[in-house]
Amino acid sequence: WKVGHISCPQHKHLSAQKKKDEAFKIQNINGEKTLYEWKAFGIDVFMTTLPVLSSEECEQAINAAEKHALGNNGWTTSRHYAVPTTDIPLHVIPEISNWFVSLCSERLFPLLSCQFGIHGERLHIHDAFLVKYSHTSQRYLPIHADQSTHSMTIALNDQQIDFSGGGTYFCHLESAFQPSKGSVLSFKGNLMHGGDPILSGTRYIIAAFLWYDDDEK
């Protein structure tokens, strides 16, 4: 898309991707060590055992997304053509975008570096968005693979307190995983997976599609 944007800078979708790429630009990665522990499910699915985000950070992200939706004609429902989600892209909310970039630099990319045995500075954010699942609207996500080399979801509220059901189902593991509030589920983007149905309440997560540049020096 970068070559296309140079050739046609006025193209609507290419211009939008450039703005998103600029918003998610990470200057430095805070090392390749992490203080967070995790459980491994095979070699390509990991879930932290304790929160990576504080409860306050989770609530601020939800409040910012709901405030943005209230003032901007609601939540988007058609950004992802094959598997649409009810979401707000993080890059359209500057304070959330800046916070998420810092989060990746300081906590998330070092974590993924340790989990997958990769160089954190070669990870890049392709897309990141705050998703809203509800038993009265979007309850689940069908089985699919992501447009990413690596993906992660961050739980922003509590199962059993705020909602029931839900979780990320992986076909090869025949099981669904529900991280606790503030915890991170990370996995290879080519894995077939889906979102289990919400039975009651509302579930919020941050989802991020990442790409790993093998050729980067």
- C-alpha-based Rg, rounded: 17 Å
* Helix run count: 4
Helix content: 25-40%
Report the order of strands and helices. HHEEHEHEEEEEEEEE
Helix-strand makeup class: alpha+beta
Beta-strand fraction estimate:
25-35%
What is the tally of beta strands?
12
Low-confidence stretches: none
| Gap from first CA to last CA | 21 Å
What does this structure look like?
By secondary structure, the protein is an alpha+beta fold. Helix content is 27%, strand content 29%. It has four helices and twelve strands, in the order H-H-E-E-H-E-H-E-E-E-E-E-E-E-E-E. Strands 1, 2, 3, 4, 6, 7, 10 and 12 form an eight-stranded antiparallel β-sheet that branches. It has a four-stranded antiparallel β-sheet with strand order 5-11-8-9, with no helix packed on it. A hairpin with a 4-residue loop joins strand 8 (168-170) and strand 9. The chain is globular. 34% of the residues are buried. The mean pLDDT is 90.
List keywords for this structure.
217 residues; four-stranded antiparallel sheet; alpha+beta; eight-stranded antiparallel sheet
